[in-house]
Queue: 2 jobs
Job 1
Amino acid sequence: MHAKTCRKGNINRVMRDEAAIGLGIVKAREEPAPGYVRLRLAFRAVAERARPGQFVHVYPVPLGLSAASRDAPVPQRRLDPFLRRPFSIHDADRSRGEFAILFKIIGKGTRELAEVRVGDALDVIGPLGNGFSAPVGYDRIILMGGGIGVAPLVLAAKDFAGSHRVVTLVGGRTAHDVLCVDDFEAAGAQVHVATEDGSLGFAGQVTDLFESLLSQGLRGVILACGPMPMMQKVADISQVAGLPAFFSLEDRFGCGLGACLGCAVRVVEPDGSRRYMRVCKEGPVVEAQKVDFDGT
Amino acid sequence: MHAKTCRKGNINRVMRDEAAIGLGIVKAREEPAPGYVRLRLAFRAVAERARPGQFVHVYPVPLGLSAASRDAPVPQRRLDPFLRRPFSIHDADRSRGEFAILFKIIGKGTRELAEVRVGDALDVIGPLGNGFSAPVGYDRIILMGGGIGVAPLVLAAKDFAGSHRVVTLVGGRTAHDVLCVDDFEAAGAQVHVATEDGSLGFAGQVTDLFESLLSQGLRGVILACGPMPMMQKVADISQVAGLPAFFSLEDRFGCGLGACLGCAVRVVEPDGSRRYMRVCKEGPVVEAQKVDFDGT
Amino acid sequence: MEPDTSVTICGIRMKNPVMAASGTFGYGREYGEVFDLSKMGAIVVKGTTLKPRMGNPPPRLAETPCGLLNSVGLENPGIDVFIERELPYLRGLGVPVIVNVAGETPEEYAEVSKRLDKAPGVAALEVNVSCPNVKKGGMAFGTDPEALKEVISSVRRSTSLPLITKLSPNVSDIGFLARVATNAGSDAISLINTLLGMAIDVNTMKPVLGAVFGGLSGPAVKPVALRMVWEVSSAVRVPVIGMGGITSGTDAVEFLLAGASAVAVGSATLVRPDACLEVVRGIWEFMKEKGVMTVGELVGAAKRKVDSGAGCPRGTRDF
Amino acid sequence: MEPDTSVTICGIRMKNPVMAASGTFGYGREYGEVFDLSKMGAIVVKGTTLKPRMGNPPPRLAETPCGLLNSVGLENPGIDVFIERELPYLRGLGVPVIVNVAGETPEEYAEVSKRLDKAPGVAALEVNVSCPNVKKGGMAFGTDPEALKEVISSVRRSTSLPLITKLSPNVSDIGFLARVATNAGSDAISLINTLLGMAIDVNTMKPVLGAVFGGLSGPAVKPVALRMVWEVSSAVRVPVIGMGGITSGTDAVEFLLAGASAVAVGSATLVRPDACLEVVRGIWEFMKEKGVMTVGELVGAAKRKVDSGAGCPRGTRDF
Ligand SMILES: Cc1cc2nc3c(=O)[nH]c(=O)nc-3n(C[C@H](O)[C@H](O)[C@H](O)COP(=O)(O)OP(=O)(O)OC[C@H]3O[C@@H](n4cnc5c(N)ncnc54)[C@H](O)[C@@H]3O)c2cc1C
Ligand SMILES: Cc1cc2nc3c(=O)[nH]c(=O)nc-3n(C[C@H](O)[C@H](O)[C@H](O)COP(=O)(O)OP(=O)(O)OC[C@H]3O[C@@H](n4cnc5c(N)ncnc54)[C@H](O)[C@@H]3O)c2cc1C
Ligand SMILES: Cc1cc2nc3c(=O)[nH]c(=O)nc-3n(C[C@H](O)[C@H](O)[C@H](O)COP(=O)(O)O)c2cc1C
Ligand SMILES: Cc1cc2nc3c(=O)[nH]c(=O)nc-3n(C[C@H](O)[C@H](O)[C@H](O)COP(=O)(O)O)c2cc1C
Ligand code: FES
Ligand code: FES
């Protein structure tokens, strides 16, 4: 059923039980580390539906409170930057109707998004995508995040805490790039840190840490997010270890809804054939062994 | 002589005794009427050099105090809107190093410019253009403004007040479009108002009021600013009355410096030949009889 | 009296002149979850070929100033799967469905068109002549008049459905190609498809797109699209469907004034799923405000003003 | 060691690869009041014709999304006035001066070139083949291979100065036209000139520009410009001067990576008078950061990466 299109004011709209489209009001903004910003947004329909591993598609320019309260049916949007940006749902407080994103400032869009102030309104569609799920038969979840890859794992740690034991491996180049350790601990997860320069925790890549923990007997379902080279290593290691692994993938998104075929990752089907999969709709979470790393 | 290019911080630069280029800090913002905004900007080099009838060329997106204080040699500028916008210098307080612009919200750029907050920094070049001047032999200046055309006349009223008697004719469609009457009176000018709907002052166009005052014996140098059809009437009437008249013209500007030939108004030379004149450099003030209204 | 936004293009009656542009609306399903598709003028589905196509390697999108590049590469499940799995859904929407047809040879275009000719629920075909013609060494059908004639003629022979030719903007003389297409039997012209472009990532020092080149769309291309609509609607007598950078009702009105009889919205939908409806509303509000009662009054109105003296024709302008 | 930004293009030694693009820098005087012009790579002056030209009626400019349209119409005082009044000033700046030459017939181009050949202080000629050819019914020299060949050949015969042909982007196959120009004797290719476009004012329901059509420039066209630079630098062996939408050092580096040996900055100068110097600084900083010592290392580097396997050539891409 279609929710009615409301032409006035800041009323958000739910799209056929799946995702909502509308304005998220910025409730809090913090910089957990230089170059990283965490925003807490009030948008009940998104927060209530959010599952770990899903994402929101956000127009990266804050509209300001005035814009949100104005009589405009759709808030005035700029033409540049043109596209929305995808961000993982980092956290969700379903009872308060709020969710969070955590992002790294890297380009035009995130630079603008970093300028939001509390009270600004952001144009959001979400939650989108499939989200993480754990196959039965494992009582432990192993979360692995490289750099900003930890963003989707915090909600995963919280949500899986009820049903699983959660171990988190957080990697970064230096201690400055290691994010969210407190959040994982607050969620009751056991946390291991790796830094490439050895400035914090294990000295080496997070995949090296992973191998070392595996050799100490760690077992569980792997949910990982990070740069492609890291993912490929995780795929290889988990295959050797015989553990199920799932990735939250990144790609350049257009619509975010599965319509434009702009986001593509090559996957191997069970019959060995290859095809491009829509990361936004059939992902962003993909089974590790399905990804055809040669095609990326 | 070239002033040194200063690569850091908010230091403004004077271009060969003429104009300055740099950041103007917003000191005050008010809306004298709905849809009109007046900004007072601190930029000493502009304020000190400003003559009535000159303009500033402004990039219409506020940069924010943070941007201004950042280590960027040139403030980050957006790509859309792309061009600067020209605005007449509306007022100048040379001792405080501040000047004002008064503008009407009409499109993309002025909509953004209207959003500035006190403390924001604007990228400004100015003062540019020739400015008003009065031929000798007249002790009275007749200022005529239609709508937002009053913007450049306030500084004219103030500056000519020392040497001339100043009469101001302000026209608008309704009483709401009649701006700056207080300012003209504060400058010691005698003010006549005309509204097309008769809601304030004389009922009719400002050019009708002008004719009526002429018939009552008014004489002087006419300095006018308004839409083209009004200008054409003023040109005709002043020619018949044998009075010198000068216009501040509007056109779409590119560089504002005379280099791109993007701003053109067709003028008649003394020998009767026609050519396009660069409004930004040879104007924006032009002798009324010089304008070839057929070529606009 | 309220403005009437309905239009009829090659016999297809539409509630309003706004279509979803091919390739940005999939086969409709994804947007069907977001808003009521029956409010649209028409839906042009994604480029469909005889055989399934895998499409190009990622990345397939790159944002550019006020626009985007795409190199999707006509990924589609092939015409038979389309007819079997997608068309029934589309047919049920109560909106004219236009199928964007692509191929590598005139024969392939003809075969796809023939299969669609028999499929109920197709309102018209849009012949996409901007994809590469491998037979002819990579030269697109849309830029070579001979090849264009051949493709349109063979499609014409294989179907009685209304034919819309979608022209490529990467040409010197778009009006000429439009005449070639209509002479070969096209009932309407749609334009513009994307402008060939590219982006380079200075960090990796490589092209951003996996396919190196991609098609530019979005507001950045609007001035070029408007000019081509103006030229084509002067060159041919068939209806013109204008697109390229439309994000608002005002943009759409510009295209109508330039001579388009209908418009399509592409990239804007990627940002605002219901962009088409926003555009419809904007057109309606513009008509209301100006007291324009039918879309027809707007079509080509700017041209009539210029013809009557307010500007110079193409031959006399200088740059 | 510090990066060396100097380059030599057809024997013209430049401090850096950044030129002011023709038509946006006048004859230099206005910007000479704003910053030290001797820091520029080169100055290309505005299009100059045999006789004075009045230019087009206003409005001549229209802002568009991330760009602008202009229809200045080659307003200029004519070659003799240029040589007498403007060249002496330019000569004194200590920067290579390139004169943009335009005309309505091959003979006119040749005559202008001949007069410049004898004028001291001209480093090269840029032959602007994108202005209308009235003789040939409004078809621009830059889109007709035969006409292009004729113009470049006759200019070639009338001067020994280095010749740069400035190509129009409004064509199907820019690489082919570049080959025509170099075969006719051009020593370098510059591109892109503006894309033909238009804007319509929905309030007046008329085109914004007095001349109806205008040329689109600025960031909006950058993806098209980059692609054409990539194509042309693959099609010819002479140096390519790239332009179209450059506003930063990063933009310029993209053009170098795509195969340009130097770049020009046009529209950006209208917004930031010293945009060229900003671009120079940005290139320098990029080189410094990446440890690139000479501009030559950047030229075409993205192409070398793709040739070595990271992408597909033009013939195989799809849209
Ligand atoms: C499903 C998903 C979830 C994500 N979650 C997060 C998150 O939680 N936190 C976070 O910091 N980042 C996340 N990203 C990456 C984030 O979307 C990009 O960093 C962001 O889009 C960059 O935008 P920009 O304008 O700053 O960069 P620009 O380089 O200016 O962007 C230009 C274009 O490229 C796209 N783009 C550039 N880099 C990336 C990238 N790495 N991934 C996808 N698109 C890119 C942009 O969206 C835009 O369309 C996620 C990406 C995806 C696909
Ligand atoms: C010398 C001069 C002095 C001016 N002084 C004032 C003033 O004091 N107060 C004031 O309100 N306005 C003034 N104007 C007009 C003002 O520049 C325009 O209203 C403003 O540029 C509109 O910008 P926009 O982005 O809101 O409109 P848009 O329509 O979005 O602008 C699109 C483009 O057209 C140009 N443009 C649109 N309308 C005009 C116009 N009427 N005149 C010039 N360019 C235009 C813009 O600069 C921009 O390049 C002056 C113009 C000139 C030439
Ligand atoms: C992601 C994407 C995919 C497209 N796929 C097709 C296609 O399959 N067939 C086609 O004819 N045009 C295709 N186009 C072009 C659009 O239909 C349209 O002509 C173009 O994008 C210009 O309109 P716009 O600026 O509104 O997007 C595609 C455009 C985009 C952005
Ligand atoms: C106002 C203006 C005037 C121009 N005049 C000329 C000209 O006289 N001759 C010419 O070859 N190109 C001319 N051009 C084109 C530019 O030199 C340049 O090729 C084009 O604008 C693309 O670069 P840009 O995006 O950096 O502006 C002009 C461009 C503008 C904006
Ligand atoms: S982003 Fe459009 S299909 Fe995934
Ligand atoms: S705006 Fe460039 S010459 Fe006047």
Job 2
Amino acid sequence: MAIMLTRHHKILVQGMTGNQGQFHTRQMRAYGSNVVGGISPGKGGTEVEGVPVFNSVRDAVRETGADASIVFVPAAFAKDAAFEALENGIRLLVMIPEHVPVQDSIAIVTRAEDLGATVIGPNTFGIISPGEGTKMGIMPNHIYKPGPVGVVARSGTLSYEIAFALTNAGLGQTTVLGMGGDPVVGQTFISVLHHFKSDPDTRAVVMVGEIGGRAEEEASLYLKELGKPVVAYLAGRASPPGKRMGHAGAIIERGVGTLDSKEKALTAAGARVVTMPWEVADAVREALR
Amino acid sequence: MAIMLTRHHKILVQGMTGNQGQFHTRQMRAYGSNVVGGISPGKGGTEVEGVPVFNSVRDAVRETGADASIVFVPAAFAKDAAFEALENGIRLLVMIPEHVPVQDSIAIVTRAEDLGATVIGPNTFGIISPGEGTKMGIMPNHIYKPGPVGVVARSGTLSYEIAFALTNAGLGQTTVLGMGGDPVVGQTFISVLHHFKSDPDTRAVVMVGEIGGRAEEEASLYLKELGKPVVAYLAGRASPPGKRMGHAGAIIERGVGTLDSKEKALTAAGARVVTMPWEVADAVREALR
Amino acid sequence: MKLYEYLAKEVLGKAGVPIPPGRVVDTPAEAKEAVAAIGPAALKAQVLVGGRGKAGGIKFAATPEEAPAVASQILGMDLKGYTVERLYAEAKLDIERELYVSVTTDRGAKRPFVMASSEGGVEIEDVDDAAIVRRHVDPRVGVLPYFGKEMAYDLGLDGTLAREFGALVEKLYGVYQEYDAELVEINPLAVAGGHLVAADARLNVDDSALYRHKGLPRVDEGTPIELKVRDLGLAFVELDGDIAIMANGAGMAMATLDAVQHFGGRPKNFLDAGGGASVEPTAEALGVLVSMNPRVIFVNIFGGITRCDDVAKAILQVRETRGIPVPLVVRLVGTNEQAGVELLAKAGISAYSEMAVAAKEAVRLAEEGR
Amino acid sequence: MKLYEYLAKEVLGKAGVPIPPGRVVDTPAEAKEAVAAIGPAALKAQVLVGGRGKAGGIKFAATPEEAPAVASQILGMDLKGYTVERLYAEAKLDIERELYVSVTTDRGAKRPFVMASSEGGVEIEDVDDAAIVRRHVDPRVGVLPYFGKEMAYDLGLDGTLAREFGALVEKLYGVYQEYDAELVEINPLAVAGGHLVAADARLNVDDSALYRHKGLPRVDEGTPIELKVRDLGLAFVELDGDIAIMANGAGMAMATLDAVQHFGGRPKNFLDAGGGASVEPTAEALGVLVSMNPRVIFVNIFGGITRCDDVAKAILQVRETRGIPVPLVVRLVGTNEQAGVELLAKAGISAYSEMAVAAKEAVRLAEEGR
């Protein structure tokens, strides 16, 4: 089992003919993802990696019955791509682009809410469900394996580090999901934890958080209801306030977003907060005992 | 019985301290309307016509439990007033102002749709339910009486003419509703007919239409489902195309909105279309036989 | 309010819609300068009526030398009742194809509405339905490029044109919203040099929203007397009959015209004196009717908010101050009816209570006067 | 991007927010002219830090004569690490009361967020919670005057001030939307002469949205080296330690700082070389680290999209072209790990596979170098 993304999803790739789109279409198909079509205006009728290309999401949905889409267009076109997908019936949308204006992200997630659609990102590495043999994202294929651990992360590479450590420790994953590093993204820790709660195969959850915002503090309020062990690693212990640490969202501003506040909230709610990324696997093994 | 407005509605008057608001608050109360409060920013705590004045709809709803509101503010403030009402829980909203920009009306009716609220107007004389002894509007009190006829009109004075003729002919009304003379208004003939269908006391319906738009044509498609006799009078037989006849909505533009088209559609759908306003009462009497 | 083509083009150009180079021309000399500056050009009469081309309101000038003569042919000409006072000189396009696109409001759906056609250059009513693509805008979503692109594919456009059409519709919708437009229309939308360009443009602005567009020049459309009465804040339309009509409320005024016509009469105007007008504006409106030299004046009042005694006072005031030299038929019922009828009776004017009877009498008097 | 106060005021003024008369002053002579023009004025240092007043960055000039001397005191002064190069002379307000209002984005709620306080003039974090009114904006509705009016009543304002506050919040939200703002803040929002006026203003614009605000002047904030690395398109923050750090991905880079600190070391910087950077930009980034003269350089790579052999090539390229005169610790795992490790090994650089071990070694080498 898995959350949000299963092998049954029929996936489109918006911006498939670009470098990134083409590369990751190949990677996704290699992993087993059911990529049924790509979108590239003006290139309808051609093929990329053996996948048919359509001029519009409308055409693609009509022809393939696609219900999910991953977006690889430049940030300035992300809003248009997202709305094109949502208004044409796509209900699982993964937004890879970084530097999407926050106002655009607000518009996208608000509309998705109204339509009952799930948005992951923007500025995310995507979602992978190893047990289902499918992914929508840019994560490396070889570092995951099926197993009982759910992982939700704000950051990409750091989550790879941790997922790979879990895999090497024999701890496979149900689903690994990247929320994205932007201030406003489709998922919150709570919304993802809520999915993990309902997934019987997920027996423990790893949260990979970081400084900035109050997402971890808000999530702590949900841990009791989750009813599954949580191990958290939070990045940014050594980061000074007022400086943006790469991610638009990773900044301690005006006293909000400190690591201390997040760690306290999660610990008080019963999560095991580890100090260093290499401590995660052991903590998960203990939690699963 | 009646449609939309009953004696149980607790009514606010937005813009109550203005000339029009004050006059019609008096008229409404004289008719029996349950006016529980008025809104006039900065005048909260005072009284008008014995009705408490509040600074905001929020305060008024909190104090009185009001669920309906009638708006008497200048057109430029109508959108603000409408949203203030809708966002604070008002679910029956009568918009008296004329000259409300169409874009504002689109925003108001769209939001009302999302909230499940009923908007009557703008540029309407309102709604009166004689059998319930209540009204929200600017129509003269003395020309109505309870009875079996539902009346829905685009135009104010013309509907008075017809309602008074009905009353004088002994044909009272369940509810008389003014859709408003603007291009975009909250109600359509169809939405109102739909209410009349469900009201067992309404035994016949009078439609008072006019040139412009396609509201009558669209309504004709509903007459079969309505299942009650309909008498229609349509104004504008002598009006030339391309000229706006007072109402922003009453204009034959580019071939759309001709009286001929409306008359044909309604007649074909089984309505009795009379040529002159003074023929309405007789036609209704016949229909009720 | 309708904007002249050159004003509409200015607005659209600012919004990023591709328009040909052009400039306003008020004299033959300016036409020469314009053609010198922009090359071979169409000189287009700036009037608010359709079908200018067929009526001779658009002519081409290939060289600066021939421009003044061409301009002189159009300037001052009468075009469907309007005198041409201004031209717009616009670079001649090498048109490969003509399309159509507009944004307006669908009243029934209460939503913005985009209409496009693969056939442009004629009135959209005359285009075969199969060539037209229609689409409502959800105001919660607005218009993004994909919206117009989908329409473009439906029109059979592809590649660059589809992309340009997507961007165009987004911009037109922006203008529709920003300018409170009733209609934004590009017809024809030309394909020239492989790109879309707005060859002609209409932009009608919602009169009710003019207060928030103080930057737009005011374009007043109507006969001198229409403009005068509208300045009083009243709705007025001039017609070609001989019975001047005043009623309260737009519906009542329309019904009054209908009644007059029903009995064989010919209305001289539409005048809505307002649902709750008081003495002074009613008197002013009546004064205008008098000044129109009708055969008969017919006042039809159902007093709801309007008080019948106020109407009576207005009538008497006009009779005293300027006189009413033609037969007057008054129908007066409703609020304060008795007071109003008595006031008139004292002055020797008898009021009717039945609209039908009054209308018939007005028509009879007009026939008598002929 | 943070805008200087004077730029923020310009934007707000255009949007209809009441601001005091003011003008930019770059020299003592201009200060005299400014005070002559606008009367007694506050001369305010234009720097992007809070607490200017306490730090001596705001002084009053009552007359044109005393203005140059006052200006000279501030111009060129060091304010929390920033040199004051420009002043804003603003008419002195007779402040009756100080309030606070801001519009920002609530990440958790994914919605715009308006915050207001009946106590202004201090940082909002220092204000008692009971004095603060908070309200989310539903993006489907936006902000209309009633919204801010309701907040005003909650703040205890009434009458004119409540009405002005309603209009103000509507305008601030308009600026928030139109300028893609991260923060629009007026603090203090003064009551002067019975009316609201923006005494100070902050406007921070979303960096990701700058491409659609070409009209805004670019304000670059950061140390010279920060600005240089950001020009490469990389995320970089200068810190005060001695171990230069490069990692791929923002989270990995933060975690690397954490690891270094965990073992007692002091990071000299944050550098995210990107999730999928290729040879050239990685080499450029590394070159910057070298130029910072650290005691140790620590490169921590988990190759997902990033290929380990590309990173190895970048390291070797920098060593060949400009040299790496300090100890280098490389941790390299993931995609093409073997190829990368072998490339480095051939050049005599041994790579670690464990992040913990590598971090510890970097710290040890830095301690040795001290």
